[in-house]
UniProtKB/TrEMBL annotation, chain A:
Enzyme class per UniProt: transferase
Membrane topology of this protein: Multi-pass membrane protein
Keyword set includes Ribonucleoprotein: no
Protein name per Swiss-Prot or TrEMBL: Phosphatidylcholine:ceramide cholinephosphotransferase 1
Domain SAM, residue spans: 7-70
Originating organism: Carassius auratus (Goldfish)
Catalytic activity field: an N-acylsphing-4-enine + a 1,2-diacyl-sn-glycero-3-phosphoethanolamine = an N-acylsphing-4-enine 1-phosphoethanolamine + a 1,2-diacyl-sn-glycerol
SMART domains hit by this protein: SAM
Gene Ontology CC terms, in alphabetical order: endoplasmic reticulum membrane; Golgi membrane; plasma membrane
Gene Ontology molecular function: any one: sphingomyelin synthase activity
InterPro entries on file: SAM, SAM/pointed_sf, Sphingomyelin_synth-like, Sphingomyelin_synth-like_dom
Transmembrane segments: 140-159, 184-205, 217-235, 282-298, 307-327, 333-349
UniProt similarity note: Belongs to the sphingomyelin synthase family.
Pfam families per UniProt: PAP2_C, SAM_1
UniProtKB/TrEMBL annotation, chain B:
Protein name: Phosphatidylcholine:ceramide cholinephosphotransferase 2-like
Entry-linked PANTHER family: PHOSPHATIDYLCHOLINE:CERAMIDE CHOLINEPHOSPHOTRANSFERASE 2 (PTHR21290:SF24), SPHINGOMYELIN SYNTHETASE (PTHR21290)
Catalytic activity: an N-acylsphing-4-enine + a 1,2-diacyl-sn-glycero-3-phosphoethanolamine = an N-acylsphing-4-enine 1-phosphoethanolamine + a 1,2-diacyl-sn-glycerol
Lineage: Eukaryota, Metazoa, Chordata, Craniata, Vertebrata
Alphabetically ordered keywords of this record: Lipid metabolism, Membrane, Sphingolipid metabolism, Transferase, Transmembrane, Transmembrane helix
Any one annotated GO CC term: Golgi membrane
């Protein structure tokens, strides 16, 4: 396209038709390039232009401005490509006189160049309402680990204080009165627990916002175990059944005690792995906490389509809890208290996380008086809205699959 | 095009200080639909149309102005009538308070019955000695401590009662208190029943067991209820009601209610502090008297504060009630909550009123209130 100031009247008329401004062609029969550029609003107020224009020529003037800009850019670009400069203009000149416009296709055959506009990228927390922030998830994970370690140490300490079975017989419990002990029941409970944890782990891997959800899980689990430390420590309940075989007490032997703690952490505190030989950790039941919490998380973050999946997990969880009692491994009060505290903490946390109004301190928000409100704010302040249940393969699997859609035109232009 | 023309003209008219008319005056049909068949109407027309345009727009201009004048005559300010103003925001509904009272009373009686039942199952001190407790290891028993607890408890209950009498919305607040108390005693019943803890200390003298003697048991129940369950009145002779501590529940609950429904300004802060001290000292004295295990007190405090905050957050945040992402209503008592709090639309403000109706001129409202708005609303 040649420069506007070199245009003739017929060029101008072609351009007007191009732009859909045919109504001006009659009035602009004598207007050439320079005259076009000299047009201003005053010209449209006088006749004959005031008769043909509906909006005082504003639309036309804007188009002229755009035209000017593009032609400047063209000139600039052509000046930069010195070797091609003349050839291009020559081509443009050559094709201008021959071509006629049809349906808005530019007659010179050149596409307008894309302009790169550099926008500084806002930080992640402004770009998306669900920023990943893996650092915070790491902090939550460390917190959970710390709480697990503390619990194990406390169990080891409490073990020393459990009264022997002969001195302090098992306390009267209503469930134990109704149901006799079933020996293999506790293994069922632990298998169910391991299944649920495995299922939850796989589900977590498939979630898109796994950093946020992982953070929540670690924080809640850590807090529940911390509460458990407290209730275990202050009062020691006797063993629930005479079948218990508690390890011998090691008074003051720190080395042996720390070895015991390591063994318990390594085995995850399960009887199946043989790491749970310590007594005294009854109020409240850690097995119930894990069974309930994994079920709550599974249900919360699973797709609604697979309605049978949370139901299966519910059955696993309920059977597991029932088996704890059947095996006379915990008092009923332990299980009930664990269930109550777990559900309350889970619902409390998630209600606060889902309502923007509850994330701020105010007189109407009594939830802000809870002791973990500041850690909660730290974890959830940048999460704006309810975390959707979106699924995405983890990073390693993503690079393998070839299901990416390619937008070929854009991609090729960028290169 | 016609609409935009009218808009421009309206903005130019400054006689009435930029008063904008949002009416559908602009929908008048244009008499000249340009029959040129082109994409842009009203453009490629000869000058004859322009003259008609001018007369048309002047007519519409006169019409709009006349309409505006008519509106202006009747309005100095704009009254916006919200749809809710006719419905009272905080209705009293004393009958609901009555139901909550019956619920609390029912639970209290049931708890007493449960204590009597559990008493029969408490293992004997010689068979099952007191459990190891960290607090008991550090602090030896002090006999007079439990009386302090009970005296503090009675003072707090009396203070709360007086404060409650002076509240304006005492029906609503009373309802909440009775409901929560009933719930806490219900939970207590369950925890007491399922597992029976042995006596915390060898000093405790439990009344002898009445195996199967129903009449004796009923007499015990009545005695306990009439004495309010307090040792001071001599009605608390039965053992077994250890997990969790009812005394802690009362101390904590009354304090929470006192704090919630009184102003937060400076002189009242001292009042809150005094009540907090009473409550705290009372709870510590329970442990010092070796009347309850530490875990009983901890669990009681946790459950009481949890329930209080939960209930009040649900009540104060209207938008939580209808929201599908509100996990608070997954508790089993959310239906009862909806029943009690359905018509309470706003957080209960802290306003006081004499129990007997006196003219409101006679007292000064100590709470911070927007008196002009308040008085206008009350009229």
């Amino acid at each position: 396209m040649k420069e506007v100031r070199l245009w003739t009247a017929s060029d101008v008329s072609d351009w007007l038709t191009d732009e859909g401004l045919q109504e001006y062609t009659d009035a602009f029969q004598d207007v050439d390039g320079p005259a076009l550029l000299r047009l201003s609003e005053e010209d449209f107020k006088a006749s004959p232009l005031s008769l043909v224009t509906g909006d005082s020529g504003r639309h036309l003037l804007e188009r002229i401005k755009t035209l000017l800009l593009t032609s400047h850019m063209k000139a600039h670009k052509n000046n930069n490509n010195n070797e091609n400069g003349h050839t291009v203009i020559a081509l443009a000149n050559g094709s201008v006189s021959n071509g006629k416009i049809h349906n808005g296709i530019p007659k010179n055959g050149l596409h307008p160049e894309p302009v790169r506009i550099l926008i500084p990228q806002p930080p992640e927390q402004e770009r998306t309402p669900y920023p990943t922030e893996w650092f915070k998830t790491g902090v939550a994970f460390l917190y959970a680990l710390f709480c697990f370690l503390t619990t194990t140490v406390v169990i080891s300490v409490v073990h020393e204080r459990v009264p022997p079975k002969e001195e302090s017989p098992p306390l009267p419990d209503k469930f134990f009165d109704l149901f006799d002990r079933v020996e293999w029941a506790f293994s069922i409970c632990e298998i169910n627990g391991m299944l649920l944890v495995g299922l939850w782990f796989m589900q977590w891997l498939l979630l898109k916002h796994r950093s946020i959800i992982g953070r929540r899980f670690f924080f809640i689990v850590g807090t529940l175990y911390l509460y458990r430390c407290m209730t275990m420590y202050v009062t020691t309940l006797p063993v629930p059944g005479m079948h218990f075989k508690c390890s011998p007490k090691i008074f003051g032997d720190w080395e042996a005690q720390s070895r015991r703690v390591m063994k318990m952490m390594a085995g995850g505190g399960l009887s199946i792995t043989g790491s749970h030989s310590l007594c005294g950790d009854y109020l409240y039941s850690g097995h119930t906490v894990m069974l309930t919490l994994t079920y709550l998380f599974i249900k919360e973050y699973s797709p609604r389509r697979f309605w049978w999946y949370p139901w299966i997990c519910w059955c696993l969880s309920a059977v597991g809890i029932f088996c704890i009692l059947l095996a006379h491994d915990h008092y009923t009060i332990d299980v009930l208290l664990a269930y109550f505290i777990t559900t309350r903490l889970f619902w409390w946390y998630h209600t606060m996380a889902n309502q923007q109004a509850l994330k701020e301190i105010s007189t109407g928000n009594l939830f802000s008086r809870v002791w973990w409100f500041y850690p909660f704010q730290y974890f959830e302040s940048n999460v704006r809205g309810i975390v959707p249940r979106n699924y995405q393969l983890p990073f390693l699997f993503r690079t393998v699959t070839c299901t990416r859609v390619k937008y070929s035109k854009l991609d090729s232009r960028e290169s | 095009m016609a609409a935009s023309y009218l808009l421009d003209e309206r903005e130019d008219d400054g006689t009435n200080g930029g008063y904008h008319v949002m009416v559908t005056v602009e929908e008048r049909p244009r008499p000249h639909a340009t029959p040129t068949g082109q994409s842009r109407p009203s453009m490629a027309t000869p000058s004859g149309d322009q003259v008609d345009n001018k007369s048309d727009t002047s007519k519409s201009r006169r019409f709009v102005r006349g309409f505006r004048k008519a509106l202006r005559k009747n309005q100095d300010y704009t009254r916006i009538i919200g749809s809710k103003s006719s419905v009272p925001q905080l209705p009293s509904e004393w009958w609901k308070t009555g139901i909550a009272f019956i619920w609390a009373g029912f639970n209290l009686v049931l708890t007493t019955v449960m204590i009597t039942i559990v008493h029969e199952r408490v293992p004997d001190k010689s068979v099952s000695p007191p459990l190891p407790d960290k607090f008991f290891d550090y602090v030896p028993r002090m006999e007079w401590a439990f009386s302090i607890t009970e005296v503090n408890g009675m003072i707090l209950v009396a203070l709360w009662f007086i404060q409650w009498l002076c509240l304006k919305h005492r029906a609503i607040v009373g309802r909440r208190f009775f409901f929560l108390q009933g719930m806490l005693y219900l939970y207590r019943m369950v925890t007491m029943y399922i597992t029976t803890l042995p006596v915390p200390s060898m000093h405790m003298d439990c009344a002898p067991k009445l195996y199967g003697d129903s009449q004796g048991k009923i007499k015990r129940v009545l005695q306990l209820v009439s004495g309010g369950g307090l040792s001071i009145t001599g009605s608390h002779l039965m053992c077994g009601d250890f997990l969790y501590s009812g005394h802690t529940v009362m101390l904590t609950l009354t304090f929470l209610f006192i704090q919630e429904y009184s102003p937060r300004s400076w002189p009242w802060c001292c009042y809150h502090l005094i009540c907090w001290l009473l409550s705290f000292v009372g709870v510590v004295c329970i442990l010092m008297a070796h009347e309850h295990y530490s875990v009983d007190v901890v669990v009681a405090y946790f459950i009481t504060s949890n329930l209080f905050y939960w209930y009040h957050t649900m009540a104060n945040n209207q938008d939580l009630r209808g929201s599908p992402h509100n996990y608070l209503n997954r508790t089993w008592w959310s239906l009862a909550f909806n029943f009690l709090e359905k018509n309470v639309k706003t957080p209960v403000p802290c306003t006081f009123a004499w129990p007997l109706s006196l003219p409101s001129v006679c007292f000064k409202n100590p709470c911070e209130s927007y008196s002009i708005v308040q008085s206008a609303r009350d009229e």
